[in-house]
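sorry for the late reply, my laptop died twice this morning and i had to redo everyting from scratch. anyway the thing you sent over, i finally got around to it. pasting the sequence first so we're on the same page, its 164 residues, then the predicted structure underneath. double check i copied it right bc i was rushing
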Amino acid sequence: MDLITPEIGLFFWQTIVFLVLIFIMAKFAWKPILGAVKDREDSINTALASAEDARKEMQNLQADNEKLLQEARAERDAILKEARVIKEKVIADASAEAQAKADKIVAQAQVVIQNEKNAAVAEIKDQVATLSIQIAEKIVREELSSKEKQQRLVEQMLDDVTLN
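ok and here's the structure:
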């Protein structure tokens, strides 16, 4: 029961021991403890500042990466656009060249056809002329076979001349 109802002497000595303990702590331990707490606080603040700097640097790196990505995309788009232009030019050139070759072939074919047509027409004219001469020769022989037919032909030609 002594612990529940302390006596004044016990209370006095406990207070003295407590004050001595606080004095010793203040003299020897308090400054190193406060120094350690201050060092810990400084290291935490330094770590927080470093983390903030790292976060800002990461944001800058992300912004730089985004900028590089945009530049790469723009360059890619420019290259693709240039490739499309070159493709269209090559296709247009090939088409124009093919059209020119086709026109040349058509022109050559027309010349060949015209030459063959002219040759055929000339040959037909020669054959018609030959046939006409042969027919005329047969008719003239028939018409001039007798003296009387010759006389009638001369009179008919004279009548035609005088009428015109």
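The chain has a mean pLDDT of 88.
thats about all i looked at so far, will dig more tmrw
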